[in-house]
Amino acid sequence: MTEDIKKGLLGIVVDETEVSKVMPEINSLTYRGYAAQDLCAKCKFEEVAYLILNGELPSEKQLKNFEKVERKERNLSKILLESIKNFPKKSHPMDVARTAVSIMGLEDKETKDNSPEANLRKVMRIFAKTPVALAAFYRIRKGKKIIKPKSNLSFSENFFYMCFGKVPEKEIVKAFDVSLILYAEHSFNVSTFTARTITSSLSDIHGAITGAIASLKGPLHGGANEEVMHMMNKIKKPENALNWINNALDQKAVVMGFGHRVYKSGDSRVPTMREYFSKVAKVKKDKKFEKIYDIVEKVMIERKNIHPNVDYPTGPTYHLMGFDTDFFTPIFVISRITGWSAHILEQHAANKLIRPLASYIGSSYRKVVPINQR
Ligand code: CMC
Predict the structure, then answer these.
(1) Residue whose CA is closest, atom 28 of ligand 1?
(2) Which of 283, 309, 363, 370 makes a 20 to 30 Å CA pair with 160?
(3) Residue 191 CA, closest ligand 1 atom number
(4) Which pLDDT belongs to residue 2?
(5) How far apart, in Å, do the first and last CA atoms of the chain sit?
(6) What is 17-220+330-349's CATH number, 2.120.10.30, 1.10.580.10, 3.40.50.300, 1.10.10.10?
(7) pLDDT per residue as tens digits for the range 48-88
């Protein structure tokens, strides 16, 4: 029997969501009805995290409470801290993030409680502790002393402080905040769908986020921002960019940071992130990557009509901010925890076990021959 197979679930609507939507009428990704670029212009990341998790933008008082909880939950347990100190120094930080969230699940007193109230409390712990765990690993693997989080710093400021020992210029912090807002949520992408699939068996939130991190790591998803930087490093200088990209396309290479399953004529997050990439390049007085960026983008559009996705500008932006390349996707994680969690809550609220079918193309029926007769 030939069944109509939609490989990669291409074009298949599997459920409903209230969290986000790409609205063609305004050509924008929206969170709970608000355009992502509007949120970037008018909000800090914590406000958007609150919006994604709670459905509405916070009042000043609600934001204060939200920040208070996040800041209070930043400290790591002894077990988690000791574990991070003992992780192999060569571990990929995405694997560190995945393992850290898994360890949090071992320790959390409410791991088994899937009520919305308990899940929101667990989200706040995962949301607050994951950046601290990553920053600790960032320092340890360089042989540097771990820097404890500071409760008078914002989410973004604190991440810079824990990694580098200081808070950078306000333009850099804002650009980082904007990248977190743009990365926070994107409907049924592969990592979110992974989180929802895990949740659909009524498993716990730590497990769902652990699985989502593993899924985000791949280069066709979040790992693309790291691959973009590897590509730019291979190109080395703007003078090489034209030849490099033309050769890559002649060889039918997949160029990282381009293309998207949902956007076919441009990712609506790119213009905002491109603008902040430029601001960071200006502060850092380094225009090299912007020049490479523009040449590669032009050729991709001219020759393939394929536009950049948000991983294209975030890659070089994080590099200019001073982060190691393998920390780019973990930064995506610390933001996307909000989107994943909103979907996990939504899945629990109207759950149906996710269990698709497959068209069987294996051997026809056969009898087992005992081992001594094979
Ligand atoms: N470079 C070169 N060709 C491409 C690219 C690219 N980046 N993206 C798509 N194409 C071509 C592809 O080869 C195919 O051509 P043909 O029809 O001749 O075989 C056609 O465009 C359709 O592509 P597809 O892979 O079937 O489309 P998809 O919707 O399954 O894939 C994608 C979307 C994101 C996996 C793909 O565009 C890709 O591999 N991009 C590079 C990785 C990347 O940047 N990922 C980040 C995604 S967005 C943010 C995130 O989730 O992190």
Answers:
(1) 261
(2) 309
(3) 51
(4) 56
(5) 31
(6) 1.10.580.10
(7) 999 999 999 999 999 999 999 999 999 999 999 999 999 99
